[in-house]
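Subject: Protein record for review, amino acid sequence with backbone structure tokens
Why sent: The fold of this protein is of interest and is recorded here as tokens.
Enclosed: The protein record, placed directly beneath this head.
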Amino acid sequence: MAAEAVHRVAVLALDGVAPLDLAIPLQVFRPREETPYEVTLCGVTEQIAATTGFALLANGGMAEVRAADTVIVPGYDPPLREMPASVLDVLAEALDRGRRVVSICTGTFALAAAGLLDGRHATTHWQYIDDLEREFPAVRVDRDVLYVDEGEVLTSAGVCCGIDLCLHIVRRDLGAATANQLARGLVAAPHRDGGQSQFVPAPVATSGDASLAGTRAWALERVGEPLTVPMLARHAGMSERSFMRRFVEETGTTPLQWLVGARLGVARELLETTDHSVDQVARDCGLGTAANLRLHFRRALDTTPTAYRRAFTR
């Protein structure tokens, strides 16, 4: 995305909208000097009822949705209900015109009702995943993911996964450096993933001293150094076998796959913000050689470091 072009985001709030689901895209895509986004809260009618008993006033309607470059449908309750024809039509029209259509949490049901998810992978809040699979058998439902990116159609799992998805969109549009900057402002993880660019495994929460968050933070501070599973296990004070099992439970991926993802994140930011050679970037991010960096870039991002730098250096 060109930094100079205004990118219009329409957040289409339906009656019964979940306030947190709604707030996420409004916060992430609010106007900033470093981003091109312009966001509008839209509704079928001017007044929108929220799940928590208060009403919202939309400053845009279906016309603003039709004019948007990205349309986002936050979660709403109950999700299994008949959608207004105007909503189904405007969502279908947006995709037909090549616009990006996004859902957060149970907003997936509106996209499914409009036929946008037929034959596509999608996800939603875990409490409603069976309903989605039963009511929309043409949708390829992915259960244990934070979000799914199908190009111009993106869906997220429950509530806070909307932050992950919105930051992913910023990363797609503007690069890792800008997404990381926004994540720091939100005090959010810049990229919770399992090393795959499209399907992102959901971490399984643990509590107390069992969490390996401290070891992951320790590793991130040393991502440019040689790191091995025995080193990580020693830092965590666990046997390698127990460490491997717990790591997969918490992150949905293996330690080595997680390290590759973390190193690619560092490489992306270095490519965007420095003029270091590809060899230097490979060394600094811990991937060693330019050839190894190119290999992982091709596997994860389907591009090369040089092409990535050209796309995201402004």
